[in-house]
Amino acid sequence: MTPEQLRVFVTVAEMQHVTRAARALNMTQSTASAAIAALETRHDVTLFDRIGRGIVLTEDGRAFLPEARAVLARLAEAEAMLADTRGLARGHLRLVASQTIAGYWLPPRIAAFRALHPGIEISLDLGNTREATADVLQGRLDLALVEGEVEDPRLEKRRIGEDQLRLVCAADLAGKITPETLDQADWVLREPGSGTRSSAEAALAALDLDLPRRSAGLVLPSNEAVMSAVEAGAGVTILSALVVARSLATGALHDCGLVLPPRPFFALRHRDHHLSRAVQAFLDQLDGT
């Protein structure tokens, strides 16, 4: 069993498609298929069922997946420890961030870090708060940068910034949306598990306005999709001031004027995993911005 075989297995399992997994790993489909076949043959086990052009995990494959992820996570930790012997001249920083942070808050901070440490390679994945937290807990990534509240004793949580939330609607609804009429408003929301949605719920709850009692007329998977729907008149929403700034400036959206409490941004890392110099340097820079 080799690390490459494990990486192929995990990637195929996550994507449920050999060709897409091979492309993600920068290898040919035949190489990826051969790695899976070698793993299955050596251990006399069937890890995947082939259904048409699709591929799904067998019961044995599902049982093996968390073990394979754990081994790869330990390998990544070992590599990080060895990389630390070179200081910050070289290294790899594996980040995952929620949409608001990744799209608006983080890019200038990554650029500033890269200017100081050009030898540190940075990879950034995108996921909502729930997904980002899972990536760190499972050891796939070094840091999660999220806006949702996360309480887990396995995680070290550090506040790195804050954001302002805005209740917005389409320009032609200006003056019609007030705290008193929110119960009758149509809501456009992010999906459950999104930090933006949980922050909106918490902000309204602080004002004795219980969002969960109202049904969302529309649930969408991205900030931009929510914003576009609201601009088109689908309802009201709560989004980051960073996200809606341009639309407010152009008049495509109207700020309803509801004062909402700020929401914090957090960096999450696994308490039991090696804290590399690259991760520490990045956290120190975030603390200073």
From TrEMBL:
Belongs to the LysR transcriptional regulatory family. The gene is cmpR_1. PROSITE patterns: HTH_LYSR. Residues 1-58 form the HTH lysR-type domain. Keywords: DNA-binding, Transcription, Transcription regulation. It comes from Pseudooceanicola marinus. InterPro entries: LysR_HTH_N, LysR_subst-bd, WH-like_DNA-bd_sf, WH_DNA-bd_sf. One of its GO terms (molecular function) is DNA-binding transcription factor activity. Pfam families: HTH_1 (PF00126), LysR_substrate (PF03466). SUPFAM superfamilies: Periplasmic binding protein-like II, Winged helix' DNA-binding domain. Coiled coil: none annotated. This is HTH-type transcriptional activator CmpR.
